[in-house]
Amino acid sequence: MKKLILASAVLLAMTACSDSDSTNSDSTSGNGTEYSCNVSRNANTVAMDLKYKAYEELRTVTFDSHGDNPYYTVKRTFPTEAYAQDECQDEKDDDYYKDIECHGKSVQVGEFAEDDNMDYYEDYYKRRCARYDEQYENGTLAEGYDEAFGR
Asked: How far is CA 133 from CA 42, 81, 90, 103, in A?
């Protein structure tokens, strides 16, 4: 649980701002090797893909063909299987998400989303990436990663 809290604290402290009202958009930040945060959108999906060192977090909201019934997933890939197993058990114990899948170094959780506005998710993810960008630039992302994963 402590690892999850630390990892979540690292990741919740970040966000990217951009004004885009298009139905197809992409927003990419970071240096592409050690760190990147990308937001993408198509006709029925909005996604944010954060990568930092050996950690990856993919947040996705997918709508059905009518733009209804948004489903939210978060897939986290950890530096080791041990971290993933701890996170998996924490998610199961917490019993917050409807769906929980655990495989190797990855844990994926999902549930129906509350907000049905794609623009909301796109803006929210871009703001999160902007915050992650800022933390990467000022070194606090590295500090949080090191604290969470002992590197």
From this structure: 23, 27, 28, 29
